[in-house]
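Record Endonuclease/Exonuclease/phosphatase family protein, 371 aa.
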Amino acid sequence: MIPSVILSILVGLLVVVTVAPLLPVGAWFVRLGDFPRMQIVAVAALLGILVAMLDVGRGPLERLTWLGVCGLVVLWQASHFVALTPLWPVESPAADGKDAIRVAVANLRFENTQREQVVEELTALDADVLLLIEIDEAWAEALKPLRSKYPHRHGVVAEEGLGMILWSKLSVSGCEVRHLVSEQRPSIFADIETPDGATVHFVGVHPTPPGLYEEDHDERHDSRIRDAELMLVAREVAERPDDRWLVTGDFNDVAWSHTTRLFKRMSGLKDPRVGRGLYNTYHADYPLVLRFPIDHVFVSAGAGVADLRRFRPTGSDHFGILTSLAFQSSEKSRPDPEGDDPEESAELIAEGLDDAEAMAPDDPPEKSASP
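=>
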């Protein structure tokens, strides 16, 4: 017989990790509770099975109570990610490959030393557009063989995982490297011309991950710097809902978190994974059950999906995302904020800007333009 006290502790922990992310705070240890929802479902289901099969508790009523709690945990947690399965209708319709642009997004990991192999893999992908993250001087040098294929090159090369570059075969105009919240974290804004002559507004992001240790201040970042960057991007998208958009990168946030869902509602953008699959990208070296979808592609409502898959850059801790997108429809994106979403978005921006200023490093790493 499993003692009631042990069962109470286990169920209590499930309830705590389920309720904690509902708190409106940016503390990193709370926001990280957004990540393991699938794992919590598995633990709650297993615990429920044990309660049903074994002689636990002090009677039928107590067992029914534990079963009910486990069932509610499963239903609540699963409700966050069920849309990222084939059980759900797709948000972005399927499209043929005509006039589609092939986009590859990958965090290559600045500590990765298997650069020659990765360059060969990127060459084989033959994407029209590359967004490469954590590009330092060593990576910039290693990527030189690809320069002839990608005449349009923009971005920032920086140490310590803070570099990001956009390389394109397609014509690029109006490219800007902005630092929306933190001077250490660039975002890339550009206009890309598709094969049929349309213009797609491209945004590449890599916001600060919650929990990242800042040595100069001897503390860890909370989530507000990340959240503020995503809200600022959503605000800009919402100001031009009639345009075509592609927002992508390593968000350092899962697809089902409150912040990412708020980003979707405020921007009106669609997630091509909805109705197709999870496409978990991090950590690539961990077993499947311990991976999370933190690398994202969001598109305007009129975009169709001709292809969507992951690829594994050798030596990286991320899977990359490879997608072919057709921006042929004239359907417009419509932001769909709920309740106090606008006020919350504004608060996140204000808090993030304050936190970024307070956590700015004393000696930031050097940066240079993409070669």
